[in-house]
Amino acid sequence: MNKPRFARPLSDLVRPALADAFKAQGFAAADILQCWPEIAGERLAEHSIPVRVIWPPRPKAAPPGAPPRPATLVLKVDSAYALEVEMAAAQILERVNAVFGWACVGKIRLRHGPVASAAAAAIRGRQARPSLDAASRARLAREVGGIEDDALRESLERLGREILAGKPVTRA
Questions:
Q1: Is CATH 3.30.300 the right assignment for the domain spanning 13-59+68-124?
Q2: Exposed (0-12), middle (13-18) or buried (19+): which is 21, by Cβ within 10 Å?
Q3: pLDDT of 10-51, one tens digit each?
Q4: CB of 75 within 8 A of CB of 109?
């Protein structure tokens, strides 16, 4: 008897195929690419994109279990926005390291050039987001309004907007 097959999400099939391509560019995971608008901010994410992560060679005399030296994140940036990205470098580094949960990136290197908006949008997964009505925005503000930690409140509010707008949430 034939075993019934169920449809699988395309992301489950594509993720293993893309893993090698990401690793070749130094991305152990696609988290930086997926979260780039939250890391860089919407405005800078429109004009910059992570290209690769360069890990320094591990010293031969390093003791076993020693943490690796921080990597360099290479960003392709529209030339007109390079200064703005450079000024936000410390904040971008902090947010990248927060995504990974440890200080894995210590430096940013900028590569000037046009950021193809279609390619950048595809990598960042940008889609037109339906806006929330006033009642939904007010309800969401009430729900998260009591949270004292600004970063947590903003993250939960962003998550709530995505859920209420009907966008599937893929990040665990």
A1: yes
A2: exposed
A3: 556 555 655 555 555 445 556 788 888 888 988 899 899 999
A4: yes
- What are the extents of the domains in the chain? 13-59+68-124, 134-164
Interhelix angle 134-144/150-164, rounded to 10 degrees, is 150
Q: Is the dihedral of CA 149, 152, 158, 160 positive or negative?
A: negative
Place of tokens 């890990």: 55
Tokens of residue 136, six digits: 């939904």
Instruction: Confirm if 112 and 77 have CB atoms less than 8 A apart.
Output: yes
Q: Residue 39 is inside which H or E element, if any?
A: helix 36-40
Q: Please, which contacts does 132-135 make with residues 24 or more away whose CB atoms are closer than 8 Å?
A: 132/161, 132/164, 132/165
The whole-model pTM stands at: 0.53
Structure-block tokens of residue 41: 């901010």
Cβ atoms of 85 and 44 within 8 Å: the answer is yes
Please state, in angstroms and rounded to a whole number, the distance separating the CA atoms of residues 18 and 27: 11
Neighbours of 77 (CB within 10 A): 24
User: Quick count: other Cβ atoms within 10 Å of Cβ 57?
Assistant: 7
